[in-house]
Design brief:
Strand content: 15-25%
Structural class: alpha/beta
Order of helices and strands: EHHEHEHEHEHEHHEHEH
Largest sheet: 8 strands, parallel
Number of helices: 10
Mean pLDDT: 96
Strand order of the largest sheet: 2-1-3-8-7-4-5-6
Oligomer: single chain
Low-confidence stretches: 1-8
Shape: globular
Amino acid sequence: MTAADREPTGTPVGPVDSSRIPRYAGPATFARLPRVDEVGGTADVAVVGVPFDTGVSYRPGARFGGNAIREASRLLRPYNPAQDAAPFALAQVADAGDIAANPFDINEAVETVQAAADDLLDSGARLMTLGGDHTIALPLLRSVARKHGPVALLHFDAHLDTWDTYFGAEYTHGTPFRRAVEEGILDTAALSHVGTRGPLYGKQDLDDDAKMGFGIVTSADVMRRGVDEVTDQLRQRIGDRPLYISIDIDVLDPAHAPGTGTPEAGGLTSRELLEILRGLAGCHLVSADLVEVAPAYDHAEITAVAASHTAYELTTIMARQIAASRTA
């Protein structure tokens, strides 16, 4: 079943009314939306957390990222002028809580995330997943490909995340997309990294990445060519394929996202990231993740605020598409 197949059960239940209850009061669900159990157990878009960071290679703490994003999302409002849409009125968006993954067994954790994602997707939801570290992208992609077949991927990140192993481990936050290519769950004609930068272990990293089919738009490319040209290039590469977007918050410059585990100088601004995403509104976005927010290194919620707005734009895209599919 898809969101388009399921008949609407009435007007979607939206966020808590901030004119009646202050935004700093009450439970911190994403954007103060209802829990999924409060809307009959199903949603068109399920916002789900994965508090897992066993796959990190440097600074830990992303296990707390989902809740930090939820807290910062109290500031979000129900109308999105950049996309001229009220996403929570167009589709039922709900907070599905957290997937409790084993922090001591990375293989079991990957299996747990995949099984939980399968259940949510089978209910008809699209996923907006809040990590957690980037390891979780692999089981999420497995679930999405199970439903849609091999998907196009836009990967926003300072790093390639197509390395082979760390200390002999196949599942880490630096390896998910190599594993995904090896497993045949990505459409290798439509793969792009966006925002990459910084030093590598060697030129072979880039050669291996290219062999897997990835195109690269560096952060310097975005600066020199501009958001509109880059976004047009990405749209052409994706076409009408089912699209999965995976965003590591370290795609942003540390000035915009200090609260992350492996920061790199010279990144995108939050404005550039949001504008690129808005330019992808016509693409067939089937699910997305946002990972690597580590609030212990954040201050003034800079990173969490940027992340909450990023998730809001992605959620808006999915809600608009769900609403359009029901009126087509």
